[in-house]
Amino acid sequence: MVSVIPHSAVPADPVIIAVDPDGWYPAVDVTALRVRTGLDGTWTDARLTPVVREEADAIAGVLAEWRAEREAKGAASLTEVDPHRSIEGTPLAVWRWQAALDGRVRAAVIRATRDFHATGDGHDRADALEPTADDWLGRAHEALSRLMGRPRTVVELI
After folding, report:
1. Overall pTM surpassing 0.85 (yes/no)
2. CA 73 to mean position of chain CA atoms
3. Is there a domain that residue 122 lies in?
4. What is the DSSP string of 77-127?
5. What is the pLDDT of residues 49-83, one digit of tens each?
6. Which residues pair with 17 in a beta bridge?
7. Backbone phi, then psi, for 90, in 5-degree steps?
8. Residue 3 counted as domain residue
9. CA-CA-CA-CA dihedral for 109, 10, 144, 156, to nearest 10
10. CA–CA dist 120, 137 (Å, integer)
11. Which residues constitute the domain of residue 91?
């Protein structure tokens, strides 16, 4: 008898992608993003990288006006926005941008994974994941609001 032990390997070498042509936003380490969001190797780098680029572009659109204001004040990159406010030497602005990207990517992956389920039972499992995708998207919105210094309110519909 032969035993097969399934596993999803995460690449050993980090995959670094530039998400912004002018370098204002930091490059993204896709391998580190996998670790932060709990993604395993089920999504290959070839499949995950376009999702990261798409979500980074969406965030850049949300932050366009905010970024223009920061550039007008002399910030040549995200790392120069409030650089004195940092954790472990990394500016809070970078941490918050990264949290927003992580949340949007994870939510996009969860929602896309739903497409793989063909049976009714599979759709029921996918329905159970939907709140998880919403939670990740909520984290992304929270991070963007904090980055832009906007007030936040959490409202639950009854």
Report:
1. no
2. 27
3. yes
4. SGGGSSTTSEETTEEHHHHHHHHHHHHHHHHHHHHHHGGG--SHHHHHHHH
5. 999 999 999 999 999 999 999 999 999 999 999 98
6. 28
7. -105, 125
8. no
9. 50
10. 26
11. 16-74+86-148
Length of the chain: 158
Contacts of 56 (CB under 8 A, 6+ apart): 19, 20, 25, 28, 101
What are 9-58's pLDDT values in tens digits?
555 566 787 777 678 999 998 888 988 999 888 888 888 999 999 999 99
Give a yes or no: residue 156 inside a domain. no
Main-chain phi, psi angles of 157, to 5 degrees:
-75, 140
**Total domains, the chain:** 1
DSSP for 5-69 reads ----PPPSS--EE---TTSSSPPEEHHHHHHHHT--TTS-HHHHHHHHHHHHHHHHHHTHHHHHH
For 15, the token pair is 């995959």
In-domain check, residue 21: yes
Question: Could you tell me the CA-to-CA distances from 15 to 56, 91, 113 in Å, in that order?
Answer: 16, 22, 22
Question: What six digits make up the tokens of 5?
Answer: 């032990």
CB of 16 within 8 A of CB of 29?
Answer: yes
**Residues 16, 27: contact at Cβ < 8 Å?**
yes
